[in-house]
């Protein structure tokens, strides 16, 4: 419609939309209905202690199972959800489902210590989300201490209100992690002010850890920074034993990645870890 505005503010014909424009509109419409149509679901990826192999938590990762498109990865629909103002609704659904799943696992005999849920920077643009988070915790009965919210550095640097909103979240007792750490522009001055407990080393640094000396240096620096600021540090995208050993050798004992497990459905996580924890 915005495109239809002519020189005088109106046009006599409907402008021919490009194929891409039509495709995007269709995608938008489908995405808006996805929650009601039960097409959104979560996968869960284990976070482990490297030296013991113990499960310390899981990260919830959203998926969209579209009848037309198949399973769509978040990189393809989160930006769209952000653009069309759907991210708050989606984010709330994800949080609910993640918290409920923690309670379900417990009913099945698996206590997952902690769940990490990703937040979009756009969820911080409409005001504080602390009351929404508190409502979800109250309704599901999950202990706030077992929820960790992941935000990227863009949220941190979007200061002003963002800092106040992050403080609100801290006040209700949930944990905060900085996701993809090292790829953004967060200054150490801001980092110091933030009530965060965890840094997640971005997987781009872990990828070439044994061949790229710069990635090695950055990874070591982040681990040291975490130590100095008394934060826990977890590495994402760990795919090999060599990477895990490198991390352990340099003082990072927490990891997440395909080497341990891909993101899986709740039933698979139960099967994988119930046995391990017992045995
Ligand atoms: P992220 O939060 O950094 O999540 C980690 C991503 O790395 C996940 O991709 C995960 O499947 C992938 N990954 C984990 N281990 C490995 C590994 O060893 N090797 C490789 N190559 N990849 C690995 P996924 O699930 O496609 O999610 C992509 C991004 O989408 C997430 O990055 C996060 O930024 C966003 N996202 C996912 N779920 C949500 C959500 O519920 N809300 C919001 N706002 N964003 C989400
Ligand atoms: Mg994440
Ligand atoms: Mg990440
Ligand atoms: Mg990442």
TrEMBL record:
Residue ranges constituting the EAL domain according to the UniProt record: 24-277
Superkingdom of the source species: Bacteria
UniProt name for this protein: EAL domain-containing protein
Organism annotation: Massilia soli
Shown segment, full-protein numbering: 764 to 1042 of 1042
């Amino acid at each position: 419609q915005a495109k239809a505005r002519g020189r005088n503010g109106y046009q006599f014909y409907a402008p021919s939309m490009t194929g891409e424009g039509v495709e995007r509109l269709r995608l938008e419409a489908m995405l808006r209905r996805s929650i009601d149509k039960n097409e959104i679901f979560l996968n869960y990826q284990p976070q482990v202690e490297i030296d013991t192999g113990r499960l310390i938590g899981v990260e919830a990762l959203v998926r969209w199972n579209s009848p037309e498109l198949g399973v769509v990865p978040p990189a393809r629909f989160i930006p769209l959800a952000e653009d069309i103002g759907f991210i708050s609704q989606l984010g709330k659904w994800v949080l609910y489902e993640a918290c409920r799943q923690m309670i379900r696992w417990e009913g099945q005999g698996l206590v997952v210590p902690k769940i990490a849920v990703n937040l979009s920077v756009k969820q911080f643009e409409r005001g504080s989300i602390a009351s929404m988070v508190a409502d979800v915790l109250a309704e599901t009965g999950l202990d706030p201490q077992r929820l960790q919210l992941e935000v990227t550095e863009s949220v941190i640097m979007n200061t002003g209100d963002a800092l106040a909103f992050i403080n609100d979240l801290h006040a209700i007792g949930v944990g905060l992690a900085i996701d993809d750490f090292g790829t953004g522009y967060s200054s150490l001055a801001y980092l110091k002010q933030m009530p965060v407990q965890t840094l997640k080393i971005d997987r781009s640094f872990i990828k070439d850890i044994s061949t790229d000396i710069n990635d090695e240096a950055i990874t070591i620096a982040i681990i040291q920074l975490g130590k100095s600021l008394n934060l826990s540090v977890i590495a994402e995208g760990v795919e090999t034993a060599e990477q895990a050993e490198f991390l352990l050798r340099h003082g990072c004992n927490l990891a997440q990645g395909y080497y341990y497990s891909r993101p899986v459905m709740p039933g698979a996580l139960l099967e994988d870890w119930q046995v391990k924890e017992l045995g």
